[in-house]
Amino acid sequence: MDWRGGDSCDLSEMADRLYSMPGKLLYTDVNFVLSDGSQVEAHKLILALASPVFEMEFYSGQWVEQDSDRVVILDDMGVFRELIAFIYKQNVDFSSLEDFQLWDLLYLANKYLIKQLQTLLEEQLKKLIKNCQPKPSLLKHLERAKETILGDQFLMTIKDEIELFAEIVLSSEEFLDMSKAEAKEILKYPNLRVTEGQVFKHAAAWCLKNNEREAGAESEFQKEFQDSIEYDSVASEDFIQNILPNSHVLEREVLKTITKQCFETKTSAMASRYALKPFKSAITVISRNNLHKNELYLRKHSFQNFDVTIGISFDHIKKCVQIDMNFNDFLTDDNTHTARIGIIITYLSQFGELPFKDTGYDVKKRAGYAKTVNFSKDLSYKYLPSDLSIELVID
Question: Is 30 helix (H, G, I), strand (E, B) or coil?
Fold first, then answer.
């Protein structure tokens, strides 16, 4: 059978067919020896076409000076074979790899400057992080993201997911096994979906797990974690359920102060750290050059558990701005609850100053299952032309 595929002269298709032929790969001229002793055969020219690093090593680098027909790869990461397969194959399938092997393959893609594979892996990892199971494995993804030079782009997504599934993550053995610095960092996340009492409980649990004696746990909690809890946000029920059973890590006088403070909050309802943040906002700036155009300006803003697309248009006859907000998800899961949504318009001078701020904070209530909110706002034309800042505020 002719592996060239008949009339096709496409090099990518031919490389794919050549690699997919059963049996030993034909016409190879390099043999890679991996860390486990196994070997991978390949063609120098094909690898050089895919990677400038392979090109340099084969034709002007250290592999030229050595016996380049046999190359030992010390940092193959256990996925070097998959790297070679990607170079030959037109369609890549990551399903055979374990979740954290994708990080290893990303390391190799970056090392050998194979940009197409790097892009595919970055997209795959972002999807994996958003849907990973079990949720405590997010902590391992956080560790891997911090280890790799390409990891910064994943940190915000991982942080958002940890905050969203905070109780599952913080209750896990994986959290208890984290270093002190890592545990402190996570417990300070501003949008954790747990109460301050639960933050206290998990901090105490970490200290008890990582100290042989209770006295050591008490000392470490007071020194490292005690000031991380916002005690003025602890409701009485939260105190009874989460702080009091773990209060042995507190000094007696501190416990008295916290007890008094919690029962003076006048509320027993528990709310997460995220829920207690009063405002979520997003700002869209329309330049003065675009204000008089008869166009619809669309801007998309992503919040932690929903996205909103804002459509902005200007009616110069009525001298007003029309703002339409479309939400792709629910601000609240309960249709009996409402979210307040408002806009603030600011007029900006060419020097960035604020000559006038429309302090009329227009507010509309949105039920949990409503998808769209509309505003019509009169403009103060005496301050135009100027750049216009439109701030969406949600609480």
Answer: strand
Single pTM value for the model:
0.70
Q: How far apart are CA 154 and CA 197, in angstroms?
A: 29
Residue position matching structure tokens 């029309």 = 322
Burial label, 109 (beta-carbon count in 10 A; 0-12, 13-18, 19+): buried
Sign of the alpha-carbon dihedral angle for 248, 250, 256, 262 = negative
Helix (H, G, I), strand (E, B) or coil at 268: coil
Full strand arrangement of the beta sheet holding 297-302 = 297-302, 307-315, 320-327, 372-378
For residue 322, give the 3-state DSSP assignment.
strand
Pairwise CA distance, residues 133 & 136, whole Å = 8
Q: Residue 158, SS3?
A: helix
Phi-psi region of 112 (alpha: psi -120 to 50; beta: other; left: phi over 0): alpha
* Residues linked to residue 391 through DSSP beta bridges, in sequence order: 283, 344
Per-residue pLDDT of 257-296, as tens digits, reads 888 888 776 566 788 887 777 666 667 777 666 666 777 7
Q: Of the candidates 323, 301, 310, which has an alpha carbon nearest to the alpha carbon of residue 374?
A: 323
What percent helix, strand, coil does the chain show, rounded to 5?
45, 20, 35
Residues 6+ apart with CB under 8 A from 33: 39, 70, 71, 72, 73
Sheet holding 70-72, edge to edge: 39-42, 30-33, 70-72
Helix orientation angle between 80-88 and 101-111, rounded to the nearest 10 degrees: 60
Structure tokens at 57: 């090593």
Cis omega (within 30 of 0) for bond into 134: yes
Show the tokens assigned to 39: 């070997």
Q: Which tens digit of pLDDT belongs to each residue from 241-256? A: 999 999 999 998 999 9
Residues 6+ apart with CB under 8 A from 349: 355, 386
Closest CA to 299 of 395, 161, 394, 391: 391
